[in-house]
Amino acid sequence: MAEQTTSPISRESSRALLRYAIAAMVIGPVVTALLLGPAMPNATVNYAGPAMMIAVALTGWLFLARGQIVLATNILGCGACLALAGIAAFTGGVRSPVMIVFPVVILIYGWLIERGGVVLTGALIMALTVGLWVAERNGVLPSVALPPALIYLAHAIAIYALATVLMVFILRAFRRQLVALNAVSQQLTERGKQLEYNRELLERAQTVARVGSWVADIAHDRITPSPQGCKIFGCQDGDVLSHHDYLQSVHADDRDGVAQAWAQALNQTHSFDGEHRLVVNGKVRWVRQKAEIEFGPDQRPRQAIGIVKDITERKQMEDEIRQLAFFDPLTQLPNRRLFLDRLNQTLTSNKRSSQHGALMFMDLDNFKPLNDRHGHATGDLLLLEVAARLKACMREMDTVARFGGDEFVVLLSELDTDIEQARRHAATVAAKISTHLAAPYLLHPPDDTQQSRSVEHLCTASIGVVVFSGAASSAHDLLACADAAMYCAKNQGRNCVCFSVTPGSAGSPDAPVAPQNIP
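The structure assignment produced for this chain is given below.
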């Protein structure tokens, strides 16, 4: 694998610059040897010096060919400094023509390595220069005749040319890098604009869908919602919440459940999914939360990414649908469907507990004349009052339902294990209902001018009752018995209560049901 270079220019540019430097380290010594040979034929250094430079150049080229740019750079830089110092020691010390090469070495080396290496290289060259001067003053260096001026001229021209080529190369390399950086910058700008556009689209989509998102830094207890998430949570755009802050906004009845579900997500399930209520600006909102937990290498929860959806409208619609499906729209009492479900539950419970219950079917007497004379709006007011009086007579565990029109049904559960005792309890409740419903009704329906007026009306009820256990009974049979008993009360002059025997409690299953008056 190729080494990573710390050069301020690109890897390919570094490789090209090294090739130029190697070429200069080969061509320069050869030219110098050719020039010095005739002028100083007896100087061994004229050939040993160039040979050292060429050896350093070839060694650097070998490692460069293997892709080891950093190692090749160090070999060329350090080797060139030592070779030049050796040549200078035998060609005049600090007055040697080769001393002019050192600044170029620093410049080339500086473009190929980091700042610290440049400082060390400069310090090394300064130390070598001082060492040559000290050695010359102390007579350590051999006395040599200085090369002719032509040699200095040749070295100066070569260095000028090399410096010019070097600067042209560096400028071209930086221009290419500048063009590349400008292209990258333009791409980043365009991508930034696209990301901003996508973010705006996401926010608009979240607003339309009433869905927000959030990111939680679990380690630092920071929850950062999106703008739509802030709207749902009831905080300002850009606010950062803590886990405690969020729990404080959760409805008191849901708070413990949310805390437990979150703790379970962190320790077991690694995900969070649930519905709960928030209290935002004094109003209750339903939200659906879904999140995934991310764990770090130490298996500790690190981050959570989640979405939150305002489902208040959906919950309201569910409540409305449930209300329409199971409750009477006028009186808000359970309707036939819900009543039958509760009756079947009571039958099942009575089979286990041996308890007896009672079913009362009642029809209002004298209700139709009120409707015919004063209109349905007045009749609805009376039905509402009847519903309120019936609920006032019941225990919390009992059920009052409206089957339609002026028909109401009452379910008394868990009266007693003894059927006679249960029958007496039922008779007491029936008498109480009959008394309450027979009291005068003072109604205040609006007239055509929307002015309130008073209507007083007397309305009683005919009540049929059947006492049952869980055995040998069905909801259909019980309703039939109670209905038959109610018609018996009608036939006996109304405003009375009639009891019916439970189906199958006496005689054969096909035996007729005989209504019985309250004793």
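Interim note for the steering committee: Confidence is low (pLDDT under 50) at residues 504-519. Residues 149-209 form the longest helix (61 residues).
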